[in-house]
Amino acid sequence: MSLPIRAFIRSFSSGSIQRSAIKNVTIIGGGLMGAGIAQVAASTGHNVVLVDQTKDILKKSHSSIEKSLQRVVKKQYAEDPKAGEAFMAKVLSQLCTETDPAAAVKSSDLVIEAIVENLEVKKKLFASLDKAAPKHTIFASNTSSIPIKEIAVATKRMDKFGGLHYFNPVPVMKLLEVIRIPETSDDTFNKLLAFGKAMGKVTVNCKDTPGFIVNRLLVPYMMEAVRMVERGEATPQDVDTAMKLGAGYPMGPFELTDYVGLDTCKFIIDGWHAKYPNNPLFDPSPLLNKYVAEGKLGNKVGEGFYKAKK
Ligand SMILES: CC(=O)CC(=O)SCCNC(=O)CCNC(=O)[C@H](O)C(C)(C)COP(=O)(O)OP(=O)(O)OC[C@H]1O[C@@H](n2cnc3c(N)ncnc32)[C@H](O)[C@@H]1OP(=O)(O)O
Ligand SMILES: NC(=O)C1=CN([C@@H]2O[C@H](COP(=O)(O)OP(=O)(O)OC[C@H]3O[C@@H](n4cnc5c(N)ncnc54)[C@H](O)[C@@H]3O)[C@@H](O)[C@H]2O)C=CC1
Question: pTM for the complete prediction?
Fold first, then answer.
């Protein structure tokens, strides 16, 4: 592990991370992102309720959190396994699961939504949460590509609405994009920034523009790599090798697409294409569509452009 990541993870357990006004956090969606956000929020002293549609899904979320925590603890507490066990028990004791979103937000200071990248589904969820959550509760979406304002209009608390965009894998990636819409109050925005810092993340302020900062640059790059293969100019393997060894990226664009999820990439690009049909950077890709139609969604299902390593 590189030193900065080690120091970052160490700060979880040493209590050196800043505190924020937000203590009780509800995370809706226990997939790739929601599980990671829940893990880091609980590791940094927050009480976390993780919500998904079924108990079976939540069992998988819990076991992925345990595995990821074990990776952290194995390295962090290599010389003191007992303290590692205590840390892990403490983190897990601050995390519970729930299938009823309305029950899960009853004493929540902050709700972070990390469900499927679909505007209508997100709006429906937030409209119902708006009725169930206390007045003071702040709402945030982890959307990769949907304008925050288009989600926020489903609620009557746009002043308490913003975006918290995390990066995969959440326990390792240090960045958090904090997005405000014109209606977001200064108080809400400052609380979101403080919460991000309390989670040990470095925050950047973003406007509600397509893809915020990172995805506006990263997704067109990933899509152009797919188009390069569609045009028969190179193989995925050669593109990945080239970008890792020639540009110093930790993963090539095809490895990264498998890691993010081909379905998520398709949701992003299709959404942007529908909104900005004349921008060639947002053109859909027949090859990506084919893989998604075949159910090759990436590492989360065992296969995408590559077969996932066991
Ligand atoms: C789509 C969106 O909206 C936004 C997005 O998220 S875009 C995607 C952004 N993410 C990226 O770009 C990721 C790019 N890839 C990387 O940075 C790296 O390949 C990686 C951090 C994922 C893995 O790093 P690696 O060196 O190849 O592998 P690995 O050795 O397994 O992991 C590095 C360290 O992180 C730790 N780690 C990796 N995944 C982990 C996880 N899920 N939980 C806990 N620890 C983890 C490992 O234990 C390892 O620690 P040591 O160095 O102490 O051994
Ligand atoms: N995959 C990535 O690298 C990143 C994804 N995101 C965004 O995070 C969100 C989630 O993405 P992933 O975690 O990758 O998806 P995922 O497919 O791994 O997980 C989504 C989870 O949400 C659950 N879900 C769906 N509808 C629900 C509902 N109405 N109520 C409760 N749970 C529901 C699903 O059962 C699933 O477990 C998306 O908006 C995505 O764009 C953001 C950053 C990175």
Answer: 0.93
